Amino acid sequence: MPRFNTPDAERVRGERGVPMRSRVRALLAVGAIAAAPALLAPTTADAATPDSTSDRTKTVASGETWEVTEITRLDELVVEDGAVLTAPEGQILSLTVDGVETGSVLDGTYGWTTVIAAGAYRGDIVLTPAAEHLESFAGATFHLRQGVYVGGDGVVEGKSVLSSVRGGSLTHAYAQDVTLTSTGEAFNGFFVADGASYALDNLQVAFDGNGRLDFASYGAAVTGAGNGTRLVVDGADIDNRGVVRTGVIARDGANVIVKNSRIHTRDGVLPADYEPGFGANMMTVPWMLGLSGNVRATNVLGANTTVTYVNSLISSESWGVLSTDSVRNSLLAAVNSTVTITGDSGYGTYADGSSQQDIFFGTQFDVATFAAISTGGAINFTDSTRDAVATLNSYLELGLTEQELTAIEPRASVVTSRGFGVMWHSGDGGSVSIGGGTRFTTAETMFLDKGKKTSIIVDGSQGAHLHAGNGVLVQIMETDDPGSLTGVYTEPTGDPDKDTGFDATAEHTADARASFTDIALQGDFYNAMRTGKNLILSFRRSSVEGVVSASTSRHAVSTITSADWQQINHVTNTPQPAINNGVIVKLSAGSRWTVTGTSYVTKLVVDADAVVQAPPGKTLTLTVGGTTTPLTAGTTYTGALTLSVTPAE
Fold first, then answer.
1. Which of 504, 531, 499, 513 is nearest to 641 (CA)?
2. pLDDT tens readout for residues 504-530
């Protein structure tokens, strides 16, 4: 069970502990024309509709500008090349045809607003000028449009494009059985903010077209934003295709709960002149992570934000599924859910920042490149026990009923990666805890640490199991990030200079640590750092069979550019004596290390009931500083230690 009660977390919980205001709202659905949905006014029924048939068509000729000052309904609209449709100052124009948002395009590859594209539109046409919804990020301000904007007092009609809302009921407190469809660019679905308490029940969203920036929620299907905002999404089906056309975004202190839902995103086609960037121009995952793709299914942003997925299917073609970015003191949780990368590149979850927590109870991962990435956050994989889920429900104020809690069957997490397990690449490192009956399987290295302070805690007492397909359980290495999108990584050559101020036999605050309890392990552990960092391994009531050693690591190529992004992360190891990369091994409580190949360590602690041995038919020899030394239980060895395995005579 993870620890929730950090001082910052308690403060956040206190802020959210104020009971939500009771909102008894009358259903404001208006009587509509045949086959029209029940919607808040103004709707298509209230739009300005010309009297004569001839006036129900409109052509805006090349060179002309038509300012649409009110919601206007037509049967046919022709916008010639060079024509301009606009709204009054402070407003932005949207177009729907038969209830589908369409025709809007960004005003440039790095645009901050949208315009109506030239073309011929026919059907039930509604033009809606709505108040601009401004969102800023990295010095840029973006002009958002959305089907429904919900504020503290309910739906804000002046910020909404209600003609895009089809079917079901839309009220100030909830939306039920509503459908939103978009074939335009950078159109949002529901944006719930300003301390609102709102529920989306059986929402259907299908967006096909590029977004602009998920940091600004620009083009997302559902967003919950702002301190005090509580958004519950139950039974949603969100299917988006497009560059940064995110499914769900939780941000800036909101508490978002997603239940019994399906969220899937697919890559879009990048503009021909797009150049990968950071900040306000980030539409693709940075290649230096060894990833590709241009859409992530979900994102958590800002400070004090919480999002929880219960009994849900969340997937993305690429990039990432459960992302956190630019966060502080936030939490992401999933219970009995499924996390999937459907393409050939992408991660399951990202824990950004030292105060981020990612918690997974009974959740299944099937991902392409990484199960998880951390830049300092804490990641926990364990079972969805009754007690764990009940505690989460109370702590995060999820509002799950006793019936819902009972329906959540306890199960273990199952994590499968066609690439790596957990990777640390920047920031202050972070931690991963694996417990319960979690089954964690990777094709590549299980734990990949690029020179960060890390903590790995694995408890196998309830059946947790690790299997690395390439045979490497822990790899510590120098970062292979070239530092910029146009940079080049060059493999260092030769041995590093010895840092005389660094003690390779001591434990330091910034070292990488891994502890294993009550588990049987098969695999190797390598520390290939060139600068001062030790790998500290602790085994308690555990067995390990493999090489544990200082090493040098090498990529398949000596230089890596963006064209070779798939070479990032992949290295081979050659064991060698430690220079600035000590390896400390501590065996306690009956643990056993079966040494399968030459291993170079700097400190070996063997408790009285622990064993270090060779495989059957082999002989193990320990040298300390080149001197053959007996291996005796209850002894600590320090210095240049070499454990060699040879055939038994």
1. 504
2. 999 999 999 999 999 999 999 999 999
Residue 648 CB-density burial (10 A; 0-12 exposed, 13-18 middle, 19+ buried): exposed
Give per-residue pLDDT as tens, 433-477: 999 999 999 999 999 999 999 999 999 999 999 999 999 999 999
Nearest one of 643, 606, 641, 638 to 503, comparing CA atoms: 638
The Cα-based distances of 16 to 249, 253, 305, 381, 396 in angstroms read 19, 10, 11, 26, 9
CA distance linking residue 388 with residue 620, whole number of Å? 45
Specify whether the CB–CB gap between 378 and 357 falls below 8 A: yes
Residue 19 confidence (pLDDT): 29
Cα–Cα distance between 2 and 648 in angstroms, integer? 47
**Extended strands (E) in 491-558:** 512-517, 520-522, 524-527, 535-540, 543-546, 548-554
- pLDDT of 21 reads 24
Find out whether 376 and 350 touch, Cβ atoms under 8 Å: no
CA-angle at 411, arms to 409 and 417, nearest 5°: 135
CB 531, CB 478: distance < 8 Å = yes
CA distances from 315 to 135, 188, 284, 286, 379 (A): 26, 19, 17, 20, 19
Q: Quickly tell me which residue has 């359980």 as its tokens.
A: 473
Torsions phi, psi of 589, nearest 5? 50, 50
Burial (Cβ within 10 Å: 0-12, 13-18, ≥19) of residue 551:
buried
